[in-house]
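Summary: Need help interpreting a holo structure output

Steps to reproduce:
1. Submit the protein chain below together with the SMILES for glutamine.
2. Request a joint structure prediction with the ligand placed.
3. Inspect the C-alpha cell block that comes back.

Expected: a single structure record containing both the chain and the bound molecule.
Actual: see attached output.

Input attached:
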Amino acid sequence: MTPAYVALEGGHVIEGRGRAPGTARGELVFTTAYTGYEESLTDPSYEEQILTFSYPLIGNYGVREERFESDRVHPRAVLAKELTEDVTEWLASEGVPAVDHLDTREVVTDIRDGGAMKCGIAVGEDVTEDDALEQLEACKAMSDHTEIGAQVSVDEPVVHGADNDGDTVALIDCGAKGSIVDSLLARNATVHVLPHDASAHDVEAVSPDILFISNGPGDPANYEQAINLVDTFVEDTPVAGICLGQQIVAEALGGTTEKMTFGHRGVNQPVLDLESGQVVMTTQNHGYTVADPGDHLEVTQINVNDDTPEGIDGIEYDVITRQYHPEANPGPEDTLDFFDDVLAMAETRSQRAVPADD
Ligand SMILES: NC(=O)CC[C@H](N)C(=O)O
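--- attached output ---
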C-alpha cells in the first residue's frame, strides 16, 4: 500500500492509502455531491483547495471529457473513502495527489467544527508525516492568494457564437465553468470571454448588452478590476453574476462579503425564492458569502439551511445574481431559467431606450 499523510491545520496527521502520488497544500473543504465528480474536479472555483468527497464511492461511472467544465483538474488534491481506478489514473495523469481509505466522516466533522482549514498532503513510497507537515507549514490562507484570478482566467479575449444573432455578453472570466458559456450560447448569445483583469476599454470594445461576472476561486476582494468594472458599467449596462460574480457585484455596489465557516458545496442545497415561496434544489460551491447587500441591492432568494443570500436583484439598476450555480453540471437543472432572466434584462433595456412615438 502506498503511504499517504494528510496534515490538518493544528498539526493532526491522518493516514490513508495513496492512490495518486505527489505533495500538495491547500484549503481543505468538503462536498456532499454524490455524482458529478468530473464536473467538480474541473470546476476552476476549486483552485487552491483540497477537495474531500463525503459520498463514499467516487469514480464509479468512469471519466469522460465531455463532462469536464475546463481543461484541467483544479483542486490541489483529492480525498475520498474509495476512489476507483479510472478516477485515480486521471488524477495521477494530471499530477494531482489522491488519497482514499480515510475516515471521511471524521474529516468532514473536523471541517464542520473547525471550518475550512489549511492542509498539507504527501503521497508516495518514500514520503513521511514530516513531508505532509512541511506542506501544511507552507500553506497560505485563501485570502492571501491575491493573484488567483490570473491562475484560472483566459489570457486573451475569446469569442464564442460569433454568428449568433442574439444578445452580446461580456463574460468576465474569473474561472468560468464551461457550462455558463454553453447556457448562453444555447440562448443564441454571442459570448466574449474577457480576462479577469479586463479594462473598461476592453469591455467597451465589445459593446455588450450584458456584463456577466463568472464564478471563480478565492476571496472576492482579490478581484479588484472586476469590482471596478461593475461599478463603471452598472448605470448603462445590465449586470449578471454567478457565485463569485454575486460576491463581486455586492462588493462593487456598496455591499460586503465575508468568509463562511465551511461554506456550501453539494448538489442539493435548498433555496427559497422570497417572492414566489418556491424552493428549488441547487448546486453550490462557495466559501464566501454576501454579508450585507448594501443600499443598491436586495436579496430575493435565501438558503433554507442558514438564510444566507442566494439571489440578489438591483434596486435601481438592472442586476441579477445567484450565489448557487444555475448552470448545474453537476446537479439539478431546475434553475437554468436564470439565463433567460439575464438575457431578458437586455430586451427590457432596449425597449426602454426606444423613444415613444409621440
Ligand atoms: N463557485 C464560486 O464561484 C466560488 C466563489 C468564491 N471563491 C467562494 O468560495 O465563495
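--- end attachment ---

Reviewer comment: Residues 45, 215-218, 243-244, 285-288 surround glutamine (CB under 6 Å). The chain has two domains: 3-140, 148-353.
Status: needs-info
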